[in-house]
From TrEMBL:
<dbReference type="GO" id="GO:0000400">
    <property type="term" value="F:four-way junction DNA binding"/>
</dbReference>
<keyword id="KW-0238">DNA-binding</keyword>
<feature type="binding site">
    <location>
        <position position="83"/>
    </location>
    <ligand>
        <name>ATP</name>
    </ligand>
</feature>
<keyword id="KW-0067">ATP-binding</keyword>
<feature type="binding site">
    <location>
        <position position="42"/>
    </location>
    <ligand>
        <name>ATP</name>
    </ligand>
</feature>
<dbReference type="GO" id="GO:0006281">
    <property type="term" value="P:DNA repair"/>
</dbReference>
<keyword id="KW-0347">Helicase</keyword>
<dbReference type="GO" id="GO:0006310">
    <property type="term" value="P:DNA recombination"/>
</dbReference>
<dbReference type="InterPro" id="IPR008824">
    <property type="entry name" value="RuvB-like_N"/>
</dbReference>
<comment type="similarity">
    <text>Belongs to the RuvB family.</text>
</comment>
<feature type="binding site">
    <location>
        <position position="87"/>
    </location>
    <ligand>
        <name>Mg(2+)</name>
    </ligand>
</feature>
<feature type="domain" description="AAA+ ATPase">
    <location>
        <begin position="72"/>
        <end position="205"/>
    </location>
</feature>
<comment type="function">
    <text>The RuvA-RuvB-RuvC complex processes Holliday junction (HJ) DNA during genetic recombination and DNA repair, while the RuvA-RuvB complex plays an important role in the rescue of blocked DNA replication forks via replication fork reversal (RFR). RuvA specifically binds to HJ cruciform DNA, conferring on it an open structure. The RuvB hexamer acts as an ATP-dependent pump, pulling dsDNA into and through the RuvAB complex. RuvB forms 2 homohexamers on either side of HJ DNA bound by 1 or 2 RuvA tetramers; 4 subunits per hexamer contact DNA at a time.</text>
</comment>
<keyword id="KW-0547">Nucleotide-binding</keyword>
<dbReference type="InterPro" id="IPR008823">
    <property type="entry name" value="RuvB_wg_C"/>
</dbReference>
<keyword id="KW-0378">Hydrolase</keyword>
<dbReference type="InterPro" id="IPR036390">
    <property type="entry name" value="WH_DNA-bd_sf"/>
</dbReference>
């Protein structure tokens, strides 16, 4: 994502004439649309951020030390699975520093010129956030090395023997990189970050706090046992917890006048195919294909993907990480193997040879 575009608009004629807009336009009680809610749900400070206590403590020290010395903080790398709050943390860093935040993503930086355009527009102390930084193109990455270390870049003008390199000084800035695959980062890029934070999956207690906070912002009346139920099915991920709460809210609005009890939460999650372990339809299809279709394995990812009608990348990147973390699937040199817990989750008796039975 490049710099935010500015859009001009005209006020309605009745406002220009001094008249009132319709009540829905000025009533503070009117709920914002879903895109507004996405921004509202994001915490604005480290104190408001739920979970990740170690990362918050370390980051607070890094930022506080930089503020005391009146210098730009070291570059920061945020690593971890999707949905744990890396983008939100980058916004908080800029907020804590009182700086502007420029946002882009690795796939958007295909050429060195794309990065040079962003770097040349930075002001001193700005925070540049690059999401999925492991996917940045190699020419742009090599330009980033010099920018991170020396706060300058070399812009090549012309082609062939007549090409000229023009050094361009850029003001000190803080790069915040986010990656879901730290292992794909090149060594030279990883080494240029002064602080690396590893974001961990959330436990049920922290996710329950996330659900309660989101319910308060959305104006949802929810009981504590219902919040715990939603949190326990959220796969350790705040983004999923917020998404499930919205769907439970829809169900409660239709069936219970907006009040979310344990029964309403369970009923909604059943309707939306989320079981007690947080598995959705695709997860259960993969598990069923592994257990019922291939006797528990070992089976290759490509074979499982064909069985459920999905791409191998989808099975490997979307389903498999949680199935392995939940102890339902194990990986071996010969393929994926269903554990005894997977058999029992499907209501079947595991064979004597099932992984994890003894």
């Amino acid at each position: 994502m490049s710099d935010i575009e500015r859009t001009e608009f005209q006020l309605p004629s009745e406002l220009l004439a001094g008249g009132r807009a319709p009540d829905s336009a000025v009533d503070p009680g009117v709920q914002p649309d879903e895109t507004d809610i996405d921004q509202t749900l994001r915490p604005k400070s480290l104190d408001d951020f739920i979970g990740q206590p170690k990362v918050r403590q370390q980051l607070d020290l890094v930022l506080a030390g930089a503020r005391r010395r009146s210098v730009t903080p070291d570059h920061i790398l945020l690593s971890g699975p999707p949905g744990l709050g890396k983008t939100t943390m980058a916004m908080i860093i800029a907020q804590e520093l009182g700086s502007s935040l420029r946002m882009t993503s690795g796939p958007a930086l295909e050429r060195a010129g794309d990065l040079a355009a962003m770097l040349s527009n930075l002001m001193e102390g700005d925070v540049l956030f690059i999401d999925e930084i492991h996917r940045i193109a190699r020419p742009a990455e090599e330009m980033l090395y010099m920018a991170m270390e020396d706060f300058r870049i070399d812009v090549i003008v012309g082609k062939g023997p007549g090409a000229t390199s023009i050094p361009l000084e850029i003001p000190p800035f803080t790069l915040v990189g986010a990656t879901t695959r730290a292992g794909m980062l090149t060594g030279p890029l990883r080494d240029r970050f002064g602080f690396t934070a590893q974001m961990e999956f959330y436990d049920t207690d922290d996710l329950t706090r996330v659900v309660n906070r989101t319910a308060s912002i959305l104006g949802v009346e929810i009981r504590q046992d219902a919040a715990v139920e939603i949190a326990s099915r959220s796969r350790g991920t705040p983004r999923i917890a917020n998404r499930l709460l919205r769907r439970v809210r829809d169900y409660a609005d239709v069936h219970a006048e907006g009040r979310v009890s344990l029964e309403e939460a369970q009923g909604a999650l059943e309707v939306f195919d989320v079981d007690e372990l947080g598995l959705d339809r695709l997860d259960r299809a993969v598990l069923s294909a592994l257990v019922k279709g291939h006797g528990g394995g070992p089976v290759g990812v490509s074979t499982l993907a064909i069985a459920v009608g999905e791409e191998p990348g989808t099975v490997e990147e979307v389903c498999e990480p949680y199935l392995v973390r939940a102890g339902l699937v194990s990986r071996s040199a010969r393929g994926r193997v269903a554990t005894a817990a997977a058999w029992r989750h499907l209501g079947l008796e595991p064979p004597e040879t099932a992984a994890g039975l003894h």
